[in-house]
Write a structure and sequence with these properties.
The chain is α+β, with helices and mostly antiparallel strands. It is built from 4 helices and 9 strands. Helices cover about 30% and strands about 25% of the residues.
């Protein structure tokens, strides 16, 4: 009798919890652009913003890079030749990720950095697309930024090769050139 009661309790509990989860999923899918903008401004719940809302928030080229993993054409990015002092932030979630102190001219056609300035905002993930083994650089909210390679300058010998479309630049206060 106790086993049967316990079993029924567990079944009901699972059904209730799954219904709550489905309601949460529906709320996230029904998120408005205004709600997403509030989350971005607050820097909270960014990973819950659905792709359908990102598609409304971002220009098509940025959406394709950030959320579809595309790559901009080499030597076409607005930040490739940027030499100002400041911080590079992600174009969607607005997370600080790289510093001008770590930027270098790699000659590859994309902005390159030898280190991450805000490691808490970066996730590295194995990428086997194109039949290659690479390491993808993502923001902690899931945006595709580029890839990291082991052919950079000392002291890290790393080259974070990023898309300009994945980033925005915030000049250092009082030091803009």
């Amino acid at each position: 009798m106790v086993k049967t009661s316990t079993l029924w309790f567990l079944v009901v509990l699972i059904l209730v919890l799954s219904a709550c989860s489905e309601a949460d999923d529906q709320r996230i899918q029904d998120m408005t652009v205004a709600e997403a903008k509030t989350r971005i401004a607050e820097g909270k719940g960014l990973e819950q913003i659905p792709k359908s809302v990102w598609k409304q928030l971002l220009p098509e080229d940025r959406y394709k890079v950030l959320w579809k993993g595309d790559t901009e054409r080499a030597f076409s990015g607005k930040l490739l030749y940027n030499e100002k002092e400041g911080v590079y932030i992600t174009a969607g979630c607005r997370l600080p990720v790289f510093s001008s102190e770590h930027k270098f001219k790699s000659g590859t056609g994309w902005p390159s950095f030898w280190d991450v300035a805000y490691p808490q905002n970066i996730v590295l993930k194995d990428d086997f697309s194109w039949g290659l083994r690479r390491t993808e650089v993502l923001s902690k909210c899931g945006e595709h930024l580029g890839h990291v390679f082991k052919d950079g300058p000392p002291p890290t010998n790393l080259r974070y090769c990023l898309n300009s479309l994945a980033l925005d630049f915030e000049p250092a206060q009082g030091r803009e050139q």
